[in-house]
Design a protein that fits this description.
- This protein has 140 residues and is mostly beta strands.
- The protein has one domain.
- The chain has no helices and twelve strands.
- Strands 1, 3, 5, 6, 10, 11 and 12 form a seven-stranded mixed β-sheet that branches.
- Strand 7 and strand 8 form a beta hairpin.
- The N and C termini lie far apart (37 Å).
Length: 140
């Protein structure tokens, strides 16, 4: 399992969630689409952010994949995920150089754990839910 970890600079001991802004993502993605996240920390506080991609299975959300990125106080993470292909209703996601495969169209969301140290990621936020659109039909 890979983790997304964001490290911000500061000397305070508590995280001010109102100072952290997460821009929304699209609701539908197709082949060759990328998911880019914009995360802004307007405080000078040192915080850590673990970001995971979750997939809905029935009534529960299950961890699907995640990765590590380190940036400064105000940053934008581009091309965090890439939908590599969609064949016979199977999704193939690519993050960095690793390929992940899951069957069927499902709902996804990002899970953000935020805290003042990697051991104290107590605050939680979720992104908007998104899904993969229908793949174009292939001719035989």
């Amino acid at each position: 399992m890979l983790l997304l970890l964001f490290n911000f600079n500061s000397s305070y001991s508590q995280v001010d969630l109102d100072s952290i802004k997460i821009k929304p993502i699209n609701k539908v993605y197709s082949i060759s689409d990328t998911i880019s996240l914009s995360l802004y920390n307007k405080s000078s506080e040192k915080i850590y952010m673990l970001i995971s991609l979750e997939k809905k299975r029935g009534r529960e959300w299950k961890l699907y994949l995640s990765d590590i990125f380190q940036k400064d106080s105000i940053f934008m993470v581009k091309n965090i995920l890439y939908l590599n292909s969609l064949e016979k209703r199977n999704e193939y996601w690519k993050i960095k150089n690793n390929m992940y495969h899951k069957k069927n169209k499902n709902l996804y969301r990002f899970l953000f754990h935020i805290g003042t140290s990697p051991d104290r990621l107590s605050l939680v936020r979720y992104s908007t839910v998104f899904y993969v659109g229908n793949a174009p039909k292939r001719e035989l």
